[in-house]
Amino acid sequence: MGNKAVSNGVHQPPPSLPLSQVRTYFNADEFWQSVEIAHALVFGYGHYTWEWTAALRGYTHPLLFAAPYWVLRVAGLDTPTTLVLVPRVLQVRSGFVFSGFYS
């Protein structure tokens, strides 16, 4: 995948490039609450915070991660490394795609 030009003439790097350059990242509460719930849905165990037990959160965001987790489980590729990397890759890709809508 090559660089893509945007309307202002600036070239953006491929979506995977930012992920390869990041050595640290911010862990928003919503990130863990989505990944942990997705893990619980697919593998049958995980931690539900009080927001989940009080039914204050919805399943839309966790289901975005549950689908790839399920594919990894069925394919026998559900290693700790893939379970950590898949959500990061999805977040980077979605950030790359949706950044054009809000800039």
Number of domains: 1
* Beta-strand fraction estimate: under 5%
What structural category do the secondary elements indicate?
Answer: mainly alpha
Query: Which radius of gyration do the C-alpha atoms yield?
Result: 16 Å
The average pLDDT value, as a whole number, equals 79
Observed structural traits:
4% strand, 103 residues, globular, mainly alpha, 5 helices
How does the SSE layout of this entry go?
Elements: E1 4-5, E2 11-12, H1 16-21, H2 29-43, H3 50-53, H4 60-75, H5 80-102
Antiparallel strand pairs: 1-2
Helix pairs in contact: 2-4, 4-5
What is this structure, in a nutshell?
The protein contains five helices and two strands, in the order ββααααα. It has 103 residues and is mainly alpha-helical. Strand 1 (4-5) and strand 2 form a beta hairpin.
